Amino acid sequence: MTITHATSVQGEPGVEVRIAQRRRLPVSQYMSILGQVNQSLLELDLRSTSRGTPRLTWGIADLGRSGAELVAQLAPVHIPPRRDATTLSAPPRDLVAGIRALGTAPEIPEQFSAQTVERILSIGRGTDDGTVDHITVTALGDVDHVDAVVTHDTIESAKTAVRVARSAWGSVTGELTVLDNRGHRNVRAQVYDAKRRQAVVLRAELKMAGELRDAWGKRVAATGTLTRNAAGQPLKLDLAQLVLVETQEERISPWSILGVDAGATGHLTTEEFMEMIRGR
After folding, report:
1. Which residues pair with 200 in a beta bridge?
2. What proportion of the chain, given as a percentage, has pLDDT over 90?
3. In this structure, which long-range contacts are made by residues 48-57, counting pairs with CB atoms below 8 Å and at least 24 apart in sequence?
4. Which of 117, 233, 235, 240 lies 20 to 30 Å from 162, alpha-carbon distance?
């Protein structure tokens, strides 16, 4: 079929991917582009919502072409009943915003990690080998569709953003997410820093898989060899030690223990007891 412009069911979140090919695109490359878009959406969903939020699964909503462009639209296969409707469009919006940011500065965008930037590199690989002129990614579902274009310049900026400029012993703190040990000789995870709105990739030995699994979704401090790009942003950390960090909600409030032992002051009133320990 022919798709002439970005369309979607009113209010339904989604992503449209338009590939402006210079010559016939191999099937494997086409599927790789869509796969990397899908994985990026899954990662961004984890970072834009709180722990325990039902996750979205993305599927092909439409396929077609418009002139020389191959067009695919991705939308949720199913929207969980307990999912807050206001969070549905966050992953597509964050993906487009990140691609736009890479087009202006060679830095890790907000909500991205070095791994997400590497996915953009994979999406735009065709701009390097000459099979693709550019790829337009559009966030669907909002009143105004917002798009970003992956070009050769975007890819060069992304390469710089993930290029290691220095390496030293360091640490990162945040929520442990995106745990994965499939197909790797080590375990990979990500620590999301909500203040900086960015994630850092962790690499750990397989023997640490259980420790990482127990800490998934919790706030941690990860220590090890930390690499940074030229802008000073943390990229990846080879994990040596992982420590759980007490959150504000987990701290014991003095009010929570008030009245636990009614006889603690003996025959004294509270005022008399406080004066006694103050030495009055």
Report:
1. 191
2. 65
3. 48/87, 48/90, 48/91, 48/94, 48/111, 49/84, 49/87, 49/90, 51/175, 51/217, 52/217, 53/83, 53/84, 53/87, 54/80, 54/82, 54/83, 55/80, 56/80, 56/83, 56/88, 56/91
4. 240
Please give the helix or strand (H or E) that residue 274 lies within, else none: helix 270-277
Tens-place pLDDT, residues 164-195: 999 999 999 999 987 887 766 789 999 999 88
Select from 194, 165, 181 the least CA-distant residue to 239.
181
Task: Say if CB 236 and CB 203 are below 8 A apart.
Answer: yes
Inter-residue contact 203 to 180 (CB < 8 Å): no
Write down the pTM of the prediction: 0.81
For the stretch 121-155, pLDDT in tens is 999 999 988 899 999 999 998 656 789 999 999 99
Answer for the pair 148, 137: CB distance below 8 angstroms, yes or no: yes
- Beta bridge partner(s), residue 140: 14
pLDDT band at 86 (very low <50, low <70, confident <90, very high): confident
Q: 166-250 domain in CATH 3.40.50.970?
A: no
Amino acid in position 272 = E
Q: Which letter does DSSP use for residue 26 in this model? A: P
pLDDT at 232 exceeding the cut of 60 = yes
How many other β-carbons are positioned within 10 Å of the β-carbon of residue 14? 24
Domain ranges for the chain: 14-161, 166-250
| Residue 5, number of CB atoms within 10 A of its CB | 10
